[in-house]
Amino acid sequence: MIIGFSSRVTVSAGALCLAGLLALTPAATADPGGAEPTPPGGPRAAAPHPSLLYRPGTQVRLRAGAPRVPEVSALSWVVADARTGEVLAAHNAHRRLPPASTLKTLFALTVLPGLPAGIRHTVRARELKGIGAGSSLVGVAEGHTYRIADLWRGVFLNSGNDAVHVLAELNGGWSLTVQRMQAKARSLGARDTRVVSPDGYDAPGQVSSAYDLTVFGRVGLRNPDFARYCATVEAKFPGGGNWSYPILNTNRLLSGAKGVKPYRGLIGIKNGYTSKAGSTLVAAARRDGRTLVVTVMNPQEGDGSAVYEEARSLLDWGFESAGRVEAVGSLGAPAARPAVTTPPAVAAAVPQEQGSVWTEAGLIAGAAGTGAAVVVLVLRLPVRRPGRS
């Protein structure tokens, strides 16, 4: 028999629905940046300026007294605050260009967490196949045994493509590493990057951008192993048996090699060069409790030191302009997880991300709808009389 419900039960069900709705509401309305909410009846916060990062040319918002952005010849560059992710200035930030060995930042973000540093591995011949002609090498040799940490120092200091090949094989192979790197880039919101060769060797269609590389550098600094390797100036690399030889970081802003003055406060990250990409560099420095990340791609003037000197001038400007510029955009929060069609091994490498405002709003709407449905269902639920089956 279908009967009406008492007002007491109806009110109870409605109260439960309202309680669930109110419990979800703060998660959606809270400021994702952690700012204090606007007091009831108080003024609404001013909307942030729209991002300028997809516009061509140099983008900067100078306040009164701010220093002028230095003129540099690079095809693309970005200056960003590592803590906040704010982009202080940029030039063609999303222009897609060959990244050279700065792509090794993405390789490290993808592969490093899954390979414990202390593991020893004896290199096999097949792991060194396919290394591109003219590649930078650290001297990995077939039949020699290395710790994973040795190989990573070969990647970060000597930009060794031979070390990359071995680590990629340990990660499941070259092709799977490409897939995982691509998934990692997407998870970080780096949409300009297309991975073909994990070591950054010139390959048809392989591109990234100053924006994406800055994202990789910023995220990398949060990983203690990544941060330690990219800040290492020199190390010993095993040569077989009981002997080793010194390797020096090819990032001249860090090492001071070839007449480049070391940059005060520099903490890495990675440089690169190929004939197609020209010189590229992702550099991070810390001064007075503030960390900046700068990416410079393919200077059009000067010699092999130009990429370092242009990065130097941009870092100097970034520190000098503290508090006197408004952001032209943001490195942003990582994007959502890949679709369920992504292979499990790839999805496992993608970090848990925060839900978007739209997702939270959907949860609230869903909760409200579910509550209403429960009330309707309860009102129409058949009630059994005592003693009946």
TrEMBL record:
Classification via Gene3D superfamilies: DD-peptidase/beta-lactamase superfamily
Enzyme class: hydrolase
EC number(s) recorded for this UniProt protein: 3.4.16.4
Entry keywords, A to Z: Carboxypeptidase, Cell shape, Cell wall biogenesis/degradation, Hydrolase, Membrane, Peptidoglycan synthesis, Protease, Signal, Transmembrane, Transmembrane helix
Signal sequence extent: 1-30
Coiled coil spans: none
Pfam families for the chain: Peptidase_S11
GO MF entry, a single one: serine-type D-Ala-D-Ala carboxypeptidase activity
Sequence positions that bind substrate: 270
Family: Belongs to the peptidase S11 family.
Protein name: D-alanyl-D-alanine carboxypeptidase (Penicillin-binding protein 5/6)
